[in-house]
Structures are given as C-alpha cells and as structure tokens.
Design brief:
The chain is mainly alpha-helical. It is built from 16 helices and no strands. The chain is globular and about 50 Å long.
Length: about 300
C-alpha cells in the first residue's frame, strides 16, 4: 500500500488552479474543491509539495483521514526542507503515534528560521498543545508566548491556545482565546469548532449547537456534519442525528471503509434508537471519531 506514495507523481496542477482549489477549501466549499481537483487525478497523484499538503487537507475533510496523514508524511519525506510539510507531518505523527512521538519529531525539526512568521508560530503553538497534554504548563505558556509574539493576529494560534489552556483546566482563559480567534477571523471553521467545544464544556450546550448549526449551513465536509450528529445524539434528538449522519456520508466522497453495521437496514438499539446505534456501533470506529469525541 505504501508503494503508491513512493512512485513519482504525474499530475502537475497549474499554480492558479491550485490556488482556486485552496480558496474553495478555505471557504468551506470542500466538495467544490474536490470536483475541481479531481480533474487532475487521485489526490495521491498530485505532484509537488504544496499540492500534496493541500491534497492531505482535502482528504481529511472528505472522510479519509488515513489518506490525509499518508499524504502529509509523503510530502515531508519527499521535501524534508519544507517547513509547511513538516508541520503537517508533525500533526500526522500525533494523530497516528501520539503526542510523545510528535514531540520527538518537533524536537528533531528545531526552529525553521527560514519559515514565515505565521508558520513558525503554528509550530510553536503545536509544541504548546503537546506540552499541555503532558500538563507541562510552564512550557506550554512559553511556547504560546513565542507563537503569539510572532503572529498575534493569526486565528489558528489562538485556537491552539484555547485547546492548550483547556487541557490545563483554565477554561475561562481558553474561552477567551477561542473568542479572540473568531474576532480575528469570523466564520473560521476550526474556530467555530473550538468555541462549540468550550461552550459545551462550560455547560452552554444550546449555544454550542446553535454555533455548529450555523457553521453547517455555510460549510461542507465530513467534520462539521459528524460533530453535529454527535451533539444531536447527546441531546437525544434522534431524527436530527440521523439526518446529520446521512449528510456526513454525502459530504464524504472519499469515506474510508466503515463496518457494514453502519448502514445495515433495520438496525435498532433498544434504548438509544437507530441513529445512536448507527453512530455507536459504526461511526465511532472511524478514524475521525476519537478527535470528535475529545472535542465534543
């Protein structure tokens, strides 16, 4: 299976077209981005570091996180000097092997001083997240301070700050960081996810649901639909959860294999009802599920 990522890629996407695909993805029109990009072949056939990194991000949005991780690792291995590819590889290592492996990878990477301030800030923020997971508040604060000093108006840095502070049980500060991210970039989907997660943790579930429903009206892709399904189930709104699960599959054309029980006709759970049974017995085994559970 790994051999397909070692063969030379043939698809060369014109820079202007690649930018259009990236803009569609940034706006949340991931299905449109997919339709535009598939003219150049499979995502794993896209050539060039920038294209491979974008392909990995698209794959994750379209229901294929394993493919996304593989593409990001491939991009970094083929172009080890590219700091952006290294950043996404570090995230892939965390997803696949855990925070300790990611910390070791980042330690070996060091500080790529040739990278843009924004990308360096992202790397420092990622180090902060990992430190917070290990309850190392002093290191997390130091890395966050470096990130904010480099890119004080970068929304992603504030999102990472929100999650790091939440891991350190500083909920009020985490909520303030999430709000700051949305002030800097209104409608930014990762910011909306962070805000919804923190609202739920603060006992403000109706506000979290409202935020996600509004996001679902403006953004495509599997992550938002799956998060809505999880929250509907938590609120025992089975019919809405069922619709959200259907949308999850409709917005995931690259959906990686799930157990057959996910869509088995007549599936029923005596207490939870069919929608929650579908999620618990099937979708929760999907690679995205652990992250969704952690966030919600």
């Amino acid at each position: 299976k790994g051999r397909q990522f070692m063969e030379p890629s043939q698809a060369v996407i014109p820079a202007a077209e690649l930018q259009s695909i990236a803009e569609d993805h940034r706006r949340g029109s991931v299905l449109q981005a997919w339709e535009r990009g598939r003219r150049y072949g499979r995502l794993q056939d896209w050539g060039g570091t920038e294209a491979r990194v974008l392909a990995g991000r698209l794959a994750r949005s379209l229901g294929a996180p394993r493919l996304g991780r593989a593409l990001h690792v491939c991009a970094s291995r083929r172009d080890p000097q590219d700091p952006r590819a290294a950043y996404y590889r570090a995230s892939a290592v965390w997803d696949r092997l855990g925070p300790l492996a990611a910390a070791r990878f980042l330690r070996a990477l060091g500080d790529p001083t040739g990278a843009t301030p924004g990308l360096r800030a992202d790397l420092f923020a990622l180090r902060a997240r990992i430190a917070a997971v290990f309850r190392d508040g002093e290191t997390a604060e130091a890395e966050l301070a470096r990130a904010v000093s480099l890119a004080p108006e970068r929304a992603w840095v504030w999102i990472e700050r929100a999650y790091a502070l939440e891991d350190l049980d500083r909920m009020d500060d985490a909520w303030a960081a999430a709000r700051r991210a949305l002030e800097l970039r209104p409608g930014y989907l990762p910011g909306l996810f962070a805000a919804a997660f923190l609202l739920r943790a603060l006992g403000r579930t109706p506000e979290a649901l409202s935020l996600l429903e509004d996001a679902g009206a403006h953004h495509q892709g599997m992550p938002i639909a799956l998060r809505l399904a999880m929250l509907y189930l938590e609120l025992e709104r089975g019919e809405d959860a069922d619709l959200a699960l259907d949308r999850t599959e409709a917005h995931a054309p690259l959906l990686e294999p799930l157990p057959a029980v996910v869509r088995r006709p007549g599936l029923h759970h005596q207490h939870l009802g069919e929608p929650q049974a579908r999620l618990e017995l099937g979708t929760l085994r999907h690679p995205l599920a652990p992250d969704v559970l952690q966030r919600l």
